[in-house]
Design goal:
Two copies of one chain form a homodimer. By secondary structure, chain A is α/β, with parallel strands linked by helices. Helices cover about 40% and strands about 15% of the residues of chain A. Chain A has a six-stranded mixed beta sheet, sandwiched between helices.
Amino acid sequence: MRRRGVDVSDVERVEGGRTFFWHGEYGWDLNSRETIDTQLGVFEGFQPKLSEGSRSSDVLFLANIQPELQHDVRAQLPDARFVALDSMNLWIDIARDSLVRAIGSVDCVILNDAELRQLTGKPNLVSAAREVLSWPATTGMRGPSVIVAKQGEYGAALVTAEGFFALPAYPLETVIDPTGAGDTFAGGLVGYIAAHPGAELSEELLRRAMAHATVLASFNVEEFGTERVERLTGKEIVARMKELHAMTQFSGAPLQLRG
Amino acid sequence: MRRRGVDVSDVERVEGGRTFFWHGEYGWDLNSRETIDTQLGVFEGFQPKLSEGSRSSDVLFLANIQPELQHDVRAQLPDARFVALDSMNLWIDIARDSLVRAIGSVDCVILNDAELRQLTGKPNLVSAAREVLSWPATTGMRGPSVIVAKQGEYGAALVTAEGFFALPAYPLETVIDPTGAGDTFAGGLVGYIAAHPGAELSEELLRRAMAHATVLASFNVEEFGTERVERLTGKEIVARMKELHAMTQFSGAPLQLRG
């Protein structure tokens, strides 16, 4: 990670404990998965301690963990210009109030579409997303203003006050391991915004970030674990973004007929 | 239908029988449905009799029915320039060989993505579509050369020898009745090609046909049965195609940074 320019100085090593462990089984078409075993290990007592450098970051991604921890970390970066949050069904089930409070403190929520429905009780994805977008007006909290619904092999949708955008997943004939695709997607999205500090947080930038996220996730599932992403190059990402662009374009102009 | 310029002269009235009847229940998010009762009625002994006018059509859509009937009708229009076929899991289960023969005689197959996986035994959608595209080379039959995978609320994908295209469904906050959305989609796709007799059957035309199909299906689900489609205007379709276009576009060019 250091070779890639990632600052890992805040990573904490805990003696005498084990790392997080997950054991699951994917369905035939990889669209469903069943958890067989989860062991939190040292993650159970995790209390993030942020260095001064981390606290001055202008972009923050709160990956899926207890909403209280997400809220605590978020509070340590009051001046961040863009904060995104991921979560999961578990926290909607057992810590919904904390999750809603954490969501109120961020700009962007990234969830699976089924989780968005569960969170809001609204079976319709657009209604569910608009419901979460309406929370700031009723709670007086900062956000969110951007909702991203992950849809697995079907791609992802972006809902903001300005409108709706949807992108299919990059089509692959060989999917080896979908584990971590959602995390890679979120990292690709937030990372794209972090990499453009001079750019306005426009619908246009968010759409490009969605494409970047989609492409990163597509590489991640091609091999086991992080194997493919470890040796991924910027050139490969740009090439696949161009391919994805070509796969989603059609002419909106009236058709010219021959003869 | 006559008011809309539809030629219904080949519609056959059978005495003493009942029309087709279907009773089903949709799941909470409308993404799944359970059939409670199906009564074929007069459809059970249906033997399509085509007039000379119908036999001279240059575009043919074989809606979902026994594959043998589809093959018989297709044989009555040997000179049609574009023939599309829809089917369902039932025929894959009980009449796979007949279905494969019918598919070999058409240009375009329109199926739900789960049905494409079932038909080919391939869990990956792209592999499944490419498998069906490879059949003409091994069987010496005419087709197919175009595969359309319907994905319900997630949209639809188009796979040809030239490439891959995917389009999200038009996002709706109010979905009243998804019954017939797949048929409306197929009709919208094939109808668009029929309405452009002078146009080459290009990837570009197929992509526009996909957008037209997506828009028609979106109107269909907004009200019960055919209520909404009955009073649909061309102007409304064009307006929604423009909206769908705006919802799917992003810039593939490198981002210009401010400052």
